[in-house]
């Protein structure tokens, strides 16, 4: 279940990079980059990095079952919803979509609170996994 988080994170970073290149072409052509495009670009980049981190954190912390599904679904919804509502709401001039940013933000917050709960309630001996006895390479 963490594969969707990691995949969404990498797709988000690739999307953010494409948008960044488009912003560069606008600037190179002597045009200004709209503020809504910059804001969506920045949010997608940061939240996508966090999606990748979450993809590794969820199994390490031991989030399972419905909580794991909730964390994954809500985080991905928030990851794309926040920049999406900025790009579509402002960029496509559909301002009635802007209040949905609260919904996407709440999805991110709830997923973080579930991770907090899992962190505080799990047995601390399982955090980080067990030593494997394998000596790391020197390269």
From TrEMBL:
Please report a single Pfam family linked to this protein: DUF8059
Transmembrane as a keyword of this entry, yes or no, is yes
InterPro entries attached here? Answer: DUF8059 (IPR058372)
Q: Where are the transmembrane segments?
A: 7-30, 42-63, 70-89, 101-120
- Which key words tag this protein in UniProt? Membrane, Transmembrane, Transmembrane helix
UniProt domain DUF8059: residue ranges: 1-139
- Lineage top rank: taxon: Archaea
For this entry, the protein name equals: DUF8059 domain-containing protein
């Amino acid at each position: 279940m963490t594969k969707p988080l990691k995949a969404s994170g990498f797709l988000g970073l690739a999307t953010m990079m494409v948008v960044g290149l488009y912003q560069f072409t606008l600037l190179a052509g002597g045009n200004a980059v709209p503020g809504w495009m910059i804001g969506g670009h920045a949010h997608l980049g940061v939240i996508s990095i966090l999606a990748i981190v979450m993809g590794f954190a969820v199994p390490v912390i031991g989030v399972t079952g419905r909580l794991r599904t909730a964390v994954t679904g809500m985080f991905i919804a928030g990851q794309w919803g926040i920049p999406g509502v900025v790009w579509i709401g402002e960029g496509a001039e559909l301002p009635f979509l802007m209040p949905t940013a609260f919904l996407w933000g709440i999805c991110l917050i709830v997923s973080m609170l579930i991770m907090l709960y899992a962190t505080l309630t799990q047995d601390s001996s399982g955090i980080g996994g067990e030593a494997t006895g394998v000596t790391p390479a020197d390269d």
